[in-house]
Amino acid sequence: MTGQADDSAPRDPDVESAVTAAIAHQIRTPLTMIVGAAETLAQRRDALAPSAINAMIDRLRDNAYRLAGVVDDLVEFLVVPDAVTVQRRDTSLHVLARRAAKRTSITRDRLHLPDVPVVLDVDPELIGRAFDRVFDNVARHTPRDTSVWVDADVGAAGIAVHIGDNGPGIPAVSDNALFAPFVSIDPGDPSPRPGLGLPLVARYARAHGGRAHLATNEHGGLTVTLDLPHET
To answer: CB-based contacts of 26: which residues, under 8 Å, 6+ apart?
Structure first.
């Protein structure tokens, strides 16, 4: 399946109201888990077995990361304008991919890169953020052993950057829904829910005069492609 980034459609007040409620739910859920685990540790620490304490700590950490991710996405979506200034310079594809992998705990043995260096004429900050969002989707929504392939095709008109995985892919949904703000798709849960990762990826591609689109790949997983024209 394929999809092209487009979040320029008029917003429906009823949809925005539902989105606001959904975002509040995404923030409240991990926060409730954090408060509950913290209160349990504070009140019953001496009575808990070490294994139970470790489980509580893991729950605190996981939900703190989840909450931080939601807040970071929301702040970035609201603060970074669509017409952000692009400062292009030669940027290593390998460096962008390895940084994104490190930030999202995708180990090097699961990261597959071209055998030869690839240099992109892009804004490294913006495209680096795009890489982070795609890698974060892999880390959040696919099994722990999922691999990631990163490659690029350079042509006369521009460059196409491909970031693919061998995860379970995504269910059949509207192409527009995949890049709509506040919507994300989890293979294990076919109902769309709040998310800002892919809309931000699309925004950074548009800032370069390009677009983002999706396709199911030969591994059965998902490939995100950034089509970025050369600077004119």
So the answer is: 70, 193, 194
pTM: 0.70
181 and 190 Cβ atoms separated by less than 8 Å: no
Query: Where residue 183 falls among pLDDT bands split at 50, 70, 90?
Result: low
* C-alpha to C-alpha distance for 89 and 13, rounded to whole angstroms: 40
Report the C-alpha gap between 105 and 138 in whole angstroms: 10
∠ CA(163), CA(165), CA(169), 5° rounding?
115
CB 196 within 8 A of CB 182: yes
Task: Give mean pLDDT, residues 13-28.
Answer: 68
pLDDT of residue 83: 63
Asked if 225 and 162 count as a contact pair (C-beta separation under 8 A), the reply is yes
